[in-house]
Every structure is written in structure tokens, then in C-alpha cells.
Amino acid sequence: MKFLSYIFVYRRLLLVVFTAVVLLPLPIILQNKEAQCAYILFVIAVFWLTEALPLSVTALLPGLLFPMFGIMASKDVASSYFKDFHLLLIGVICLATSIEKWNLHKRIALRMVMMVGVDPVWLTLGFMSSTAFLSMWLSNTSTAAMVMPIVEAVVQQIISAEAEVEATRMTHFTGSANPTLEIDESVNEHEANERKEKTNQNSGTGNKYGTKKNHMMYKLMCLCIAYSSTIGGLTTITGTSTNLIFTEHFNTRYPDCQCLNFGSWFIFSFPAAIMILFLSWIWLQWLFLGFNFKMFKCDKTKTYQQKACAEVIKNEYQKLGPMRYQEIVTLFLFIVMALLWFTRDPGFVSGWSALASGYADYIMDSTVALLVGLLFFVIPAKTSTKTTPTGEIVAFDYSPLITWKEFQSFMPWDIAILVGGGFALADGCEESGLSTWIGNKLSPLGSLPVMLIILITSLMVTTLTEVASNPATITLLLPILSSLAEAIQVNPLLILIPATLCTSFAFLLPVANPPNAIVFSYGHLKVLDMVKAGLGVNIIGVAVVMLAMSTWIVPLFDLNTYPSWAPAITNKTTP
């Protein structure tokens, strides 16, 4: 038993050594560049899937192993680690830092919930909409972490209001007067006894939720936040790291395409995200509160619980006070960044980048992100004062909207390194010829219907991303799927877009992605609850993606033809 305990303690070390040694015969026996690169690819894949090493540490292995095996020079590998993606990420994080620093995200969330009302059905839709909107611009993790305390306070108020109503009714039945509420006098003695018995059961068991319905409400709200923070990230290139990884990989592998930008991504992904969000809302409502067409009825009369809930949200919003100068400037820069992204090169008309005649292709979404991002370090937020020896308070400096230290605390350096490792791995696969070899081996799949290939790919990615991190999954699969598309002579976007979207469909387990873990940590959910709910949302997501790939996305990117910007397949074989 002691030996087994040592194995458990040092399991990660043993896995690292075991993987490296067991796979070593591959490059030793075959002795060609493809086999050597395949060895590196398998080792990195195992480390990413098992997290035997931190993801970002594993991402540094191409920088070590490619030069050692003679696949790429060290300076060439190093240049793969920093791309246009990183500049885009820096600009977006500047915006996110300012939004969270000045509490603009909380104001947006509370205002949107106040707009939809406090009926449980519409309240969940309000929270899902506001959470999805925030996750378009902020990280999914920070969005879920920010909204969950608000949800917790609102649901607690609903339960306490319901308990107060029940207590008031019991007081009325025992003969006490109630000056604040009008109770229906026609309630018979049998109903009163049932309420007493129900109250005694709840108090006797010490149930913190009071009733099963309240517990279901907690579960519903938690999952709504977890899932909507992920769904919202689908709609923009910057919404989640997987979108950014795909965009950079695609633009690097197919530089002549020039068809994928912020505007074109939003046009095809926004309708899909809206459909997934709406259908998920209905599914979760049915699963936890039951489905009834009457729930869509907008009733202007509010119950005591709804009024109490509305009061909580209103109080939270009032605590923020009037909109401050810093929030106004941040909101203005946020709108400017979004407008510049959309209008840079819309596709159907000439964008503002065309004004730079001769070098319009040099201006990318990262240029916009950096331009606006740098302004956050320049625009004053408040002045710094000091007291002179005479006692006079004078201004001697100013603080910008964000500082470098604040930016550093928000910047996901681990993701930046992970993505860089993925780019280096993809370059190594190209240099060694492994991508071409994989493409030739996958070419027989061309006999299958294209939609069947897309479905198989989507289901495979959705399954894998439940047990592996989303960035690692997409980074690992993009070179393989690109080679597959080229081998079967279909538009690479037809394979890569659904795979990228499905990488975000990690809804089944608490450990599948950070938003799931955050809501699970509040203690209202069981793993089985998330599995049941997540399975339905996964099915909805894959179905909507399949619908999108066969309808509105087809004319947008001309997916029915093999494009000229994609390389023609070569019949290279392994030497």
C-alpha cells in the first residue's frame, strides 16, 4: 500500500517520464522528420490532455524539442511564439481591465436585468442576456465570477421573501392581524393545516432552500450563468481564447484569404449564439422549473417575492451611484473599438482601412485594439494630490484609466504562451512534412458526405473538450483538421469553423471549463445536475452549428467551392 501511495504522490512525474520513454521508439525506428515531429506532437498531446505539466509549460516544449530533433532552428521556433494574436489580446485586456476596475460591467449587468423584470422566467433570460453580452468583451471566467454574487443575492432575496409571505399567512391563520398584506380570507382550514405541516417539515430538516422549487431555482440560475458566459464568448473573435487561436492559425496558414475579421465572424456567429442561448434557456426552464406556455405571458402584476427581488436589484444598482467620468470614458472607448472593428473591412462595402491606399492589408484588428488600448494608459482618470509644508493641497500628477500593474494582473500570460506553443507546433508540422503526410492518409474520408464529416468532427471535438482544456484542444486539432480539409478538397472553413465553435461546448462537467467550476463552487449543484443539463445544451449547440454550416454561413464564405487561397493537395508520401 505504501508503494501505491508513492505512485499516487508522484503520478505526474511518472507520467512525464513514461510518456517520453514509451513513445521514443517512434523516431528511433522510422528515423525521418515526420516521425520525429509525430513523437513531439504525441508527447505534447498527452501532457495537454492529462495536464501532467502546466499547460503553458508544455507549450514551451516545441522551443526545446524542434531544435534538438533538427526540425526547426531555435530562432525560427521563437518567432512563432509571438504573433498578431498577442497584440490583439493586449488591446482587449486593456479594455477589460478598465471595465472591471471602474465597475462598468456590474452597471451593465444590473441595468439589463432591471429592463427584463423579475419574474423567474424573464429574470433568468435577463441574467443570461447580460452575462452573454459581457462575455463578448470580457473573459468568460471573469464574467461568471462577477455575475454570480449578484445572482446569489437575488435568489436569496426571493427565498426570504417567500418565507416571509408564508410566515405572514401562518400568523393570519393563528388569529394575528397583518397590516401589510391582504390575505385571502377564503382559505379553508385544511389548506392552513397543509401549510403548517409543510413549514414544520422544512424547519425540522434544516433545509436551507425551504422548498424544492427554491433549490431548483438556485440550480437553474447557476447553470444559466455558467452556460451563457460560454455562449456569449462565441460571438466575437476576442470573446474566448479558442476563437483567437483559430483566427491566428487560419490567417497564418492561409494568408491569401483575407476573409476572416471581426465583422465577418460576428455576422455568422451572432445568429448561432442567439439561437443556442434561447433554446438553452427553454431547455433549462423545462428541466428545473417545468415548461408551460403561460410562462411566456408578460403579467404586469407582481407578487411580493418579485417586488422584493426587484428591490434587491434596484438597491444594488443605486449603490453604484451616478455614472462617473471614468465609466463614461471607458464606455466611449469600448464603443469606438467595436465600431472600428466592424467597419475596418465589412466585406459588403469598403471599410475605413481602404483609406490607407497601398497598405490597407497592413491594418488588422490588432491595430485597432492597440490604438484604443494605449489610450487607457494616456487618458487621465483622476489627479494625484499632496499636501505642501504650508498645509495646502495641490495636484502634482494624474492617474490614467489603468496602470501597467493593473494590466499585468489581468493579462493571461499563460494563455499567451499556450497559444504561442500551438503556433510553433503547427509550424513544426508544416516544416517536417507531417501535415502533408496526415493529409494524404486522411484523403479516403473524401468519399463520405461532407456534412457527415462535419458532424463527426463536431461530436469528436465536443467530447474531447469535456476532459481537456479548450485552448489545448483547439491548438492540438487545428493543424490536423486543416490537413483533412485540404486532403478531401473542401473549403477549410467548412471543417474549422464548426470545430472551433464546438470546442467551447464544455458544458457537462464542473472541471470542463472555469465558468462551470465557479458556479459549482457555490454548492447548489451536483455533478449529475450539470451532466443532465449540459448534455441537452451540447446537443442544442451541435445542432445549431450544423444548421448554420448548411444555411447562412455558406454564401458568406462561398463554402461550396474549394478556394484558390487554399493549397492544392500534393501526393507526397513518406520517404
Task: Give a quick rundown of the structure.
The protein has helices at 2-9, 11-22, 25-30, 33-50, 55-58, 61-68, 74-80, 84-101, 104-116, 120-135, 140-173, 189-205, 212-232, 241-253, 262-288, 304-319, 325-344, 365-375, 404-410, 413-432, 434-442, 450-464, 470-487, 492-503, 514-520, 527-550, 553-557; strands spanning 380-387, 393-400. It has 575 residues and is mainly α.
* Shape descriptor: globular
In round numbers, the mean pLDDT is 80
- How would a textbook summarize the main sheet? 2 strands, antiparallel
- Estimate percent helicity: 55-70%
Description:
The chain has 575 residues and is mainly α. It has 27 helices and two strands. A two-stranded antiparallel sheet has the order 1-2. The radius of gyration is 28 Å and the shape is globular. Mean pLDDT is 80; it is low at 176-206 and 571-575.
Which features does this protein show?
disordered C terminus, transmembrane helix, about 575 residues, sodium, mainly alpha, two-stranded antiparallel ribbon
Give the SSE map:
Layout: H1 2-9, H2 11-22, H3 25-30, H4 33-50, H5 55-58, H6 61-68, H7 74-80, H8 84-101, H9 104-116, H10 120-135, H11 140-173, H12 189-205, H13 212-232, H14 241-253, H15 262-288, H16 304-319, H17 325-344, H18 365-375, E1 380-387, E2 393-400, H19 404-410, H20 413-432, H21 434-442, H22 450-464, H23 470-487, H24 492-503, H25 514-520, H26 527-550, H27 553-557
Antiparallel strand pairs: 1-2
Helix pairs in contact: 4-20, 6-20, 7-20, 8-18, 9-10, 9-11, 9-16, 10-11, 10-13, 10-15, 11-13, 11-16, 11-25, 13-15, 13-25, 14-20, 14-23, 15-26, 17-18, 20-23, 21-23, 22-24, 22-26, 23-24, 24-26
